[in-house]
Design goal:
Keywords: DNA replication, DNA-directed DNA polymerase, Nucleotidyltransferase, Transferase. 40% of the residues lie in helices and 14% in strands. The strands form five sheets. A six-stranded mixed sheet has the order 1-2-3-4-5-6. Strands 7-8-13-10-9 form a five-stranded mixed sheet, sandwiched between helices. Strands 17-18-19-21-20 form a five-stranded mixed β-barrel. With 1017 residues, it is α/β, with parallel strands linked by helices. The protein has 38 helices and 22 strands. Helix 8 packs antiparallel against helix 9, helix 17 packs parallel to helix 28 and helix 19 crosses helix 20. About 1% of the residues have low confidence.
Length: 1017
């Protein structure tokens, strides 16, 4: 009887979760239930499973609405029916094909019209839904004749009165109006509740034909689904046999290119993997990925294949990854094994500049009917809940800001705020809108609309209406097509080196970018700013503590820096054992045999599996449950508890003492959270090395590429500093040399116009285009004649020094500009005005302070270029100690003067703490630690230079200054405003610092880790 049920996947309309709907129906003994969310099939698969568990027959469909108008309810007779509905809505969402108001072209769908939208002609599958409140219409002749086409329509939108109020709030949010101003047609009727079947049938007792029609509809409709069936595109060439032939040919071709002809280990590995891939019918999946990579190579793009795919030698031979699994002892079973029923998961990164080109290729190659992004449900978040709910109750913006920024406990206790809190709490976890998954693409064998309607978000690529977890459940494994700035930096650096030096660097050649002597020296010293994944202060400190001077240690470092490993204390123990290999024993032989490379410490996800298998005697399937728990995929506490119980019982059978088993499982458990598989770490390490190789041998071009790709961990100023330290001559933008991005000519680096604040991009585009078409600008007057620019934009260019080629000082240029342009607007100027000879004015000689340029730069770029920040200090003092000498002062007090680069908030049991990163006057970096007692008396006061007093602590080759006192040092007043007291220190506020916050739990101290360093009996 329930043909029209909504859940909260009817966005900003429904109030029930799928569980609440099904559970409520089960309690009432309802035997058949229809899910018809508004223009959505997001929840049909979850609905199907819950109904089956509850013994309810599931029927799925969709309520079709346009704006607030209900057109009809579409119920699928079977799976092909839901496909028809999806196709119609997809055409509307993606191609703007209007929704038919009546008589949609369905074959396997029953259409139920509201009385407000009855078609002239009825097909066999068309019905009219009559609500209980509308039964009085049937006394009239024109309605009575339609009874043979009528069914019961009892929409379900809420269960309680509170739910109904929440529904109206959601509708007010959707319509951006006050709840008091909602119009009747914008929200549901107050009787859209789940009535007991007996009560509902009683209302229609005088109309047995309507009841009979309803029962017939329910009998005709149904939904069945087989979850275990793979639904990705099956074949690349057209058949399993030809797929295997092509894959085999490509694999052996790659084997010949990458390995010695006599390498039997590699050959046997290829044979073994091909056999497993064939048995699992995954040849097509490998070939599709290979095809995407081949297209990328043909376009000259760089990619990084990472994740567990790097465990496969076939991936390596096909060029999908650049990691040799034999070299790093990566076992294929971590990626693919005969117990696995779903396709493997390839993660491939491209430059953020190239990714859309790759996506367009995939959509064009495999067809828009078969390709879509995974969707994701964006839930109402804390701040947005209070802001949105408060707005519909009419609260002013000031109060909304307070509600959104404070915890609920701090809110005022008036009646309106209480209402906001009450209904806001009910909205937690409600989906607010659908969005696009960051990287997951689905390529299906059958049309993808067989499984979901598609939507077209602003990005421009269609998405399914369900998320990646549902996709995986129904047999659609995603291809992760990712983007990152690190690859863009590498790619752009290679291009800049070719343009600036005439050198072609084959950065894909691993011999260049792995275990190279000078690069290893930079690694061990932590000189890695700008390099992918290894530039943060924490990572640079780790590299120095490890004296990391080879690729394999870098692979380990890439994983132990992850929160899961560091949080467990394994990172500290790894550092100790790496530096003191003769001061510990493996506490059990299995740890020496399986984890000898990492000193008996679990560093990678695979290590957990190894210990579960070889120490605990568990089956590989149980090991995989642990692995998935480590990575956050499919995490199930109940499944994890079963594995734990099995682990302890299995260890007991193997004769392990209980205290030993408890210690081993403690290590496993502490590892949970964030960690990498070894192949993932190896992939990251290769990209880090590629970045480092370019930084070491072509530092200027590399840093320019980093600047142009938006940097990384730090702000632009830091990368500009690195370029300067590498020998670059840093210059502010010039109208004859600069473009939107930063340019390099020899060792001269001209900052791009993109860094100049308040300068319109359109002005830059016109400037660059005019210069390319008609040559360099000869003078200020020539520039004004050729580029349509207003006085405000021209002044910015003068202040940043873009006309210094003219040889005139800025003061004189500004006077000329104002005399030439006056109050004219660009669009009002006549060309004839500039065709006349320019008048020569006799201008007074205007003196400029030597530091005026620096303050212009601070105002427009955020940092000085023509001098260092130290030169702007009032004091001439530069510190007693330089960063390069800190290792000599272990446990001694030092006084230093330094410029603040970044600080990171770190929680500790003693309270808030910060780690600071600084440069001294020589441009070298060093790090500080600021504990809560010090911060209370000597807090950070924004960007700038500080006088620091502290004690040096050297921790495994890495010095940190623990600050006892610090004071921000004053800069000279701005000489441009010598007579304006208010503005003399205004520009100083633009000097920035990088601040990162974390709310993670404090890392354990060494005495809290408790990892045994002696064999346990």
């Amino acid at each position: 009887m329930y043909l029209n049920c909504h859940t909260y996947h009817s966005l900003r309309y429904g109030t029930l979760s799928i569980e609440e709907l099904v559970q409520s129906a089960s309690v009432l003994g309802i035997e058949t239930l229809c899910l018809t969310d508004i223009n959505a099939v997001t929840a049909i698969y979850e609905f199907f499973k819950l109904c089956k568990d509850a013994g309810i027959k599931p029927v799925v469909g969709m309520e079709i609405r346009q704006n607030d108008e209900l057109l009809y309810i579409a119920l699928a007779k079977d799976a092909s029916g839901i496909a028809e509905i999806n196709q119609m809505l997809t055409a509307f969402n993606c191609e703007n094909i209007p929704l038919p108001k009546v008589n949609p072209a369905f074959e396997k769908v029953i259409t139920i019209y509201p009385v407000e939208n009855i078609p002239e002609n009825f097909s066999e599958n068309d019905y009219i839904g009559i609500r209980p409140t509308q039964l009085n219409l049937l006394f009239r002749k024109e309605w009575k004749k339609l009874i043979p086409k009528m069914v019961i329509l009892q929409p379900i939108t809420f269960i309680t009165k509170r739910d109904y109020n929440l529904h109206r709030i959601l509708r007010a949010i959707e319509n951006n109006t006050l709840i008091s101003k909602l119009e009747t047609h914008q929200y549901c009727q107050p009787d859209e509740v789940l009535k007991p079947p007996v009560e509902l049938l009683e209302l229609y007792r005088n109309y047995p034909l309507i009841i009979e029609n309803t029962q017939r509809v329910l009998e005709q409709c149904g939904f069945d689904f087989e979850f275990s069936t793979p639904r990705n595109k099956k074949h690349y060439t057209g058949s399993k046999e030809t797929d295997l032939e092509l894959l085999t040919e490509l694999a052996y071709k790659g084997l010949q290119e990458k390995y010695d002809p006599d390498d039997q280990t590699a050959r046997k590995r290829v044979e073994k993997e091909l056999k497993v891939i064939d048995e699992l019918n995954f040849s097509g999946y490998f070939l599709i990925t290979w095809d995407i990579v081949q297209y990328s190579n043909s376009m000259g793009f760089m990619h990084i294949g990472r994740g567990s795919g790097a465990n496969s030698i076939i991936s390596y031979c096909l060029g999908i990854t650049n990691i040799c699994p034999i070299e790093l002892d990566l076992y294929f079973e971590r990626f693919l094994n005969l117990n696995r029923k779903t396709p493997p998961d390839f993660d491939i990164d491209w430059s953020w500049q190239d990714r859309d080109t790759i996506l367009t290729y995939i959509f064009n190659k495999y067809g828009k009917d078969h390709v879509a992004f995974c969707g994701t449900n964006v839930e109402f978040k804390y701040k947005s809940i209070f802001r949105e709910v408060g707005k519909v109750f009419g609260l002013p913006k000031e109060e909304l800001d307070v509600l959104a920024s404070q915890s609920a406990a701090m809110h005022e206790s008036n009646s309106v705020v209480q209402q906001v809190q009450k209904y806001g709490k009910m909205m937690e976890k409600f989906p607010n809108q659908r969005s696009m998954h960051a990287c997951g693409i689905l390529i299906s064998e059958e049309p993808i609309t067989n499984y979901s309607a598609l939507e077209m978000p602003p990005k421009g690529f269609p998405i399914v209406q369900f998320d990646m977890h549902t996709a995986e459940e129904i047999g659609l494994e995603k291809f992760d097509i990712l983007s990152q700035r690190g690859i863009g930096t590498i790619n752009d650096a290679v291009n800049l080196i070719r343009e600036n030096k005439g050198i072609d660097v084959n950065i894909r050649d691993n011999r260049l970018s792995k275990d190279e002597g000078r690069c290893n020296e930079f690694l061990s010293r932590g000189k890695t700013i700008g390099c992918f994944y290894i530039e943060s202060p924490a990572m640079r400190g780790l590299l120095r503590r490890l004296k990391c001077d080879n690729y394999k240690v870098l692979v380990a470092a890439s994983s132990i820096i992850r929160p899961g490993v560091a949080q467990s204390g394994m990172m500290k123990e790894y550092i100790f054992r790496h530096n003191n290999p003769d001061q510990f024993e493996y506490f059990h032989p299995v740890f020496q045999q399986q984890l000898g490379e990492t000193y008996g410490i679990m560093v990678y996800q695979e290590d957990v599996i190894k210990i579960a298998l070889y120490f605990g005697g568990l089956h590989a399937t149980d090991g995989d449950v642990l692995r998935r728990a480590m990575s956050g995929k499919g995490r199930s506490l109940s499944a994890l508890q079963k594995v734990k119980d099995h682990f302890f019982s299995s260890c007991a059978k193997l004769g392990h003492p209980e205290n030993l088993t408890t210690e081993v499982y403690r290590q496993i458990e502490s590892f949970a959270g964030y960690s990498f598989c070894k192949a993932h770490s190896a992939s990251y390490a290769v990209e880090s090395y590629q970045s480092l190789y370019l930084k070491v041998y072509y530092p200027v071009e590399f840093m320019v590429a980093a600047i142009n790709n938006g940097g990384g961990f730090y702000r632009t100023e830091v990368y500009v500093h690195e370029a300067k330290m590498s020998g670059a001559d840093i210059l502010t933008p010039c109208v004859n040399k600069s473009e939107y991005h930063t340019m390099v000519y020899g060792t001269e680096v001209y900052l791009g116009f993109m860094h100049v604040q308040s300068l319109e991009q359109r002005t830059v585009e016109l400037l660059v285009d005019e210069r390319k078409r008609n040559g360099d600008f000869k003078s200020l007057e020539d520039f004004i004649r050729r580029v349509p620019i207003g006085i405000a934009g021209l002044q910015i260019l003068i202040f940043i020094g873009a006309f210094r080629f003219t040889g005139f000082p800025k003061n004189e240029l500004l006077l000329k500009a104002r005399m030439l342009l006056g109050d004219f607007k660009p669009e009002q100027r006549f060309q004839a005005l500039f065709d006349e000879p320019v008048k020569q004015y006799s201008l007074p000689v205007l003196k400029r302070d030597v530091f005026e340029d620096a303050f212009d730069e601070i105002e427009l770029l955020g940092f000085p270029v023509s001098c260092s920040p130290f030169e702007l200090l009032k004091t001439k003092y530069r510190g007693d100690i330089m960063a390069k000498d800190l290792l000599k002062f272990n446990k001694k007090q030092v006084r230093m003067l330094a410029y603040l680069i970044s600080r990171k908030h770190v929680p500790t049991k003693r309270g808030t703490m910060f780690f600071g990163t600084w440069i001294d006057v020589e441009g070298e970096y060093f790090d500080t630690a600021h504990f809560s007692d010090s911060l209370e008396l000597y807090p950070f006061q924004g960007g700038g230079c500080y006088l620091l007093l502290g004690i040096v602590a050297v921790d495994f080759h890495f010095p940190t200054v623990t600050i006892t006192k610090m004071a921000k040092m004053p800069f000279i007043p701005d000489p441009r405003y010598a007579y304006d007291e208010e503005k003399r220190y205004e520009a100083h506020q633009r000097i920035k610092e990088d601040v990162s916050m974390t709310q993670r739990k404090p890392y354990p101290q060494e005495h809290e880790i408790g990892l045994p360093r002696r064999m346990l009996k």
